[in-house]
Amino acid sequence: MSRFFLPLLATLPLAASAQDGGQLFATYCAACHGAKGEGAVNSQFPPLAGSPWPLGDPDRAIKIVLMGLQGPVEVNGRTWNLEMPPQGAALTDDQIAGILTYVRSSWGNKAGAVTVDRVKTVRASLGSRADHWTAPEILKLHPLDLTPPIKDLISYIYEGTWQECPDFSALKPVATEEEHNGVISLKKVGKDDHYGVVWEGSLEIPADESYEFYFDADDGGRLILDGKTLAEVKGIGAIESRAVKAGEKLTKGPHKIRVEFYEFEGNEEIRVGWRKKGSPGWIWLSDSKSTASSKKGREIPIEAIADRPAIYRNFIKGTTPRAIGFGFPGGVNLAWSADNLQPELVWTGKFMDGGHHWTDRGQGAEPPAGEDVVTLLSTKTMPKDAQFKGYKLDPIGNPTFAILLGNRRLLDSWKSGNLQGKPALVRTLTLVGSGDPLELVLSDKLPATLVSGTDYTLGTTTLLHLDQGKIESRGNSAVLKLAPGPPVTLTYGWQ
Amino acid sequence: MFNVGCSMFLLTSLSFAGQEEYYLRQQIPTPPGEIMELGSIALLPDKQIAVSSRRGDVWICKGAYDEDLSKVTWKKFASGLHEPFGMFWKDGSIFLTQRPEVTRLKDENGDGIADTYETLCDKWGINGDYHEFAFGSAPDKEGNIWVLLCLTGSVSADSDWRGWCMRVTPKGEMIPTCSGIRSPGGIGFNAEGDTFYTDNQGFWNGSSSLKWLRPGGFMGNPSGNKFAKLGNFPAPPEPANPSRMMIERKKFPELVPPAVILPHAKVGNSPSGIACDTTGGKFGPWAKQMYIGEQTASQVQRINLEKVNGLYQGAVFHFLEGFEAGIVPMRQDEDGTLFIGGTNRGWASKGSQPFTFERVRWTGKTPFEILTMTATSDGFELTFTSPVDPATAGNPASYGMEAWTYIYQSGYGSPEVDQATPKVTAASVSADKTKVRLKVDGRVQGLVHHLIANGVKSASGTGLWHPEGWYTLNEIPK
Q: In Å, how far are A42, A106, B152, B289 from B295, measured between CA atoms?
């Protein structure tokens, strides 16, 4: 008779006294942090292996495990913005001590064990705190023990007026400092203009590999590795647009790094970074970092395509949560509030950038992407019983919003047009039903001033043309009396 | 004596190796360049499928049922919706639940693009918080859509009716139906038409679970209780803190205990979409069982439910895995095809892709599995998908069991507590060898009972594809 034995891999995690840190880690942490602490799913989650976060002062790690962490967090030069849920209510002190001891002694991590007593003490010290930590908050309490990016870093400061890189070897420095934090920084120079700095130190390369370097300077300089100039920014100019990337194959071990820099006048900045070829993020050797790459990835322009307006329903800054955005051809845009049942924002130029809401969890509201934003309305002006019935699109996608008012319907249509030769928004209002005219508030803060005939200005920048009728001013409000039956067309333009 | 110690990860890797024998999982190509982070899937007439993306688009796919998936075609039907979760087709229109409202979409002029975006119901509050999601069901027997309103920040209830489940009638009336919701991942009906949803581990939820939305019931999280007076609804319970579900249930009959607890980190981390198998055998023998999506581990679990003393309870088993991104929506068609949508944005998941659209079909080969696990007065009864080997299946030593529960508290999640050590003392195999009655000493009402049936072999000598089940013993039958 065959017997089916499964190797006895571990006892089931039952009683608190028999906790195996590695097993607990596998059960509760590995789903996100990876079976080997590498950050699961190709580092979609941050790593713990080789990270300074769980090392050093154990209180930092204990507090993060208890209360969770949200918002951007940088680990070894790369930023994540996810949410670590608090584990304090789900894990016992025993379990947390076991897990952290395991994490601090695995995969190359070397730090002391975490005791149950320490976890107990820290938990008690947090009292009734219920909020997640943010990285800046926890780092203020427990800064990371960071290995200096550049070993034995020394800075030499020179005085002079240069618009290109001088031959520093022929010059005498006015000051020299040991930079124990190993970071290239202009903060301690003490001057704004007419100076140069040379940094020298040792960069520890982890393995025989191809590497990439990032160099940028305002006004200019050079990056030299083992006596070879890898990157250069010449002349005078601003940061960002002249950044240079260079590749180099390097062997494992220490390499001499020398950075030359000069500042003529105006702004001053230097950015030096490196990474293994193909790595997603840069490891910064300077305190100034490029944010260009991360911002570009988040721009997702939403625009009208040919005749068809773009629709964006999301949290638009400056109006209510139930905002419905329409970006019309010709660069005229509208945010219509389905809470207040009225147009609230109009603007020209670009419609919206989806990059905010469509990256990570996309919290918050995104402002219009264009210019000349006009807030027509910001308070509820419709009758209390008004109900939103949605909208219909005409064959090219222009909307008509429908509002139920008792037994009547207000139809509010929008499309692009022209006013005095410039792109404008054309609004057609129809009150379906019978009875008294509706007092429609066109703006609750921009008074209407008659220019001539049926042309008005709303506030100072908006032009308003009516095809018929008139607009009344009531204090700061502009009101249109809309009779049931025939449509009234208003054209909103910009001066 | 058999060793019954086991490791979750070893079993997981064993089961994955066998999946293609029983279930074929295929990715369906999506429109090139489009970010198809799916939140909803709807079945349409003529073998068409509609999907909605988190970016607010609705696309219609043709050819998703055909052999050659490279020939599928897509047409964008609608855009500019605010994160829809829950969509279905009815009477020529597509209905969906999006963050601010329940909407009816229709193409009136026949150009293939929606021109009608009718607002059916927008009577709940949203304040700009990203976590105030709305998940909507397909219509129930009365034609009502059940809408779940996730808590603000998944913590509190800052806008009207957050934490509540509403039924929206075909006329657009909003009827408060259940309170106590925290953070839903999906909603669906069982074969009897009762409504269930998945609620995530977190505040007041010691572990994720499948919960029964019994009308008038309180699901456990009191953050939204204050809104009862907006609708003349009886005040929901304010449970003691910390406590236990068993204790608070006795005080508050409205408190509905989770039907099936999905033990945290063991079964999954973040349950999502629900599909009930009413195909009558086209996806395997799991008649009327429920499939539950899992967003973090990109898996599908299987649940068999029963009703004991008026409460739903049952067992969850691991089932399918290897999906390319975290599952959110699931839909099964009558022909057995199971469609899933996945996304990892903001809530990272296992898998090689940031988003996915897939289908799963049964190969026709039935795996050797525990078909059902039900409670008896003195133990559990197991039915199997094929005859067992009586020597192993009838030996109590082939079965291990442990039990625990979670603290019912305001904090985020809970450790496993109140551990018990029930023991299988007898196992009697039925004459046709498809049933085994286990006599278990030391069961405790209210605990999750974890069965480990490593020792059981089929009549042909194979082990169980998934030898573990987790049974939530809310009630013990007489």
A: 17, 28, 20, 20
For B8, name the nearest residue in chain A, comparing CA atoms only.
Answer: A27
pTM of the model: 0.83
B79 in contact with chain A, both atoms CB, cutoff 8 A: yes
**How much is the pLDDT for A161?**
95
Query: Would an 8 Å CB–CB cutoff place B13 in contact with chain A?
Result: no
At A19 the pLDDT is 61
CA–CA distance, A456 with A452 (Å, rounded to integer): 7
Inform me whether the pLDDT recorded for A14 exceeds 90. no
DSSP letters spanning A84-110: EPP-TTTS-HHHHHHHHHHHTTSTT--
Residue B440 CA to residue B442 CA, distance in Å, equals: 6
How far apart, in whole angstroms, are the C-alpha atoms of residue B289 and residue B301? 10
pLDDT computed for residue B325 by the predictor:
96
**Across the interface, do A6 and B6 touch by the CB < 8 Å criterion?**
yes
Start-end of H helices in A387-463: none
Rounded to two decimals, the ipTM of the complex is: 0.94
Q: Which of A2, A5, A6 to mutate to test the interface with B (most CBs of B within 10 A)?
A: A6
Residue B258 preceded by cis peptide, ω within 30: no
Please list every residue in chain B whose beta carbon sits closer than 8 Å to the beta carbon of residue A338: 100-101, 119, 122
Please confirm whether the linkage preceding A394 is cis (ω < 30° from 0). Answer: no
- Segment A428-480, tens digit of pLDDT: 999 999 999 999 999 999 999 999 999 999 998 899 999 998 999 988 899 99
Distance from the B170 Cα atom to the nearest Cα atom in chain A, whole angstroms: 14
Rounded Cα distance, A55 and A51, in Å: 8
Distance CA A455, CA A491 (A): 9
Q: State the amino acid at position A20 in one-letter form.
A: D
CA angle B167, B172, B178 (to 5 degrees): 15
- What is the Rg, in whole angstroms, of the alpha carbon atoms belonging to chain B? 22
**From residue B349, how far is each of A45, B154, B322, B326, B344 by CA, in Å?**
9, 19, 11, 5, 5
* 8 Å CB contact of B114 and A362: no
Is the Cβ pair A90, B412 closer than 8 Å?
yes
Taking CB atoms and an 8 Å cut-off, how many pairs form between chains A and B? 167
Asked if A86 lies within 8 A of B55 by C-beta distance, the reply is: no
For residue B250, give the nearest of B478, B474, B414 by alpha carbon.
B474
Determine whether the interchain pair A90/B415 forms a contact, defined as Cβ–Cβ distance below 8 Å. yes
B266 touches chain A (CB under 8 A): yes
Of B82, B117, B419, the CB nearest to A314: B82
Q: Does domain A16-141 have CATH number 2.10.109.10?
A: no
DSSP per residue over A168-207, as a string?
Answer: GGGS--SEEEEETT--B-STTS--SSSEEEEEEEEEEE-S
Q: Chain B: give the shortest CA distance to residue A471, in Å.
A: 31
The residue assigned the tokens 């090392």 is A55
Query: Which amino acid does the sequence have at B425?
Result: T
- Say if B220 is an interface residue toward chain A (CB within 8 Å): no
Instruction: Establish how many alpha carbons lie within 13 A of residue B270's alpha carbon, considering only the half-sphere containing its beta carbon.
Output: 21
Tokens (6 digits) for A401: 């919003």
Residue of B nearest to A27 (CA): B265
Q: How far is B299 from chain A (nearest CA, A)?
A: 13
Q: What would the two tokens of residue B80 be?
A: 């500019």
Mean pLDDT of chain A: 91
**Confidence band for A130, pLDDT divided at 50, 70 and 90:** confident
Domain boundaries, chain A: 16-141, 151-291, 301-494
3-state helix vs strand vs coil in chain A, percent to 5: 15, 40, 45
Q: Does domain A151-291 have CATH number 2.60.120.260?
A: yes
Find the helix or strand (DSSP H, E) in which B355 lies: strand B355-362
With CB atoms and an 8 Å threshold, state whether A41 touches B351.
yes
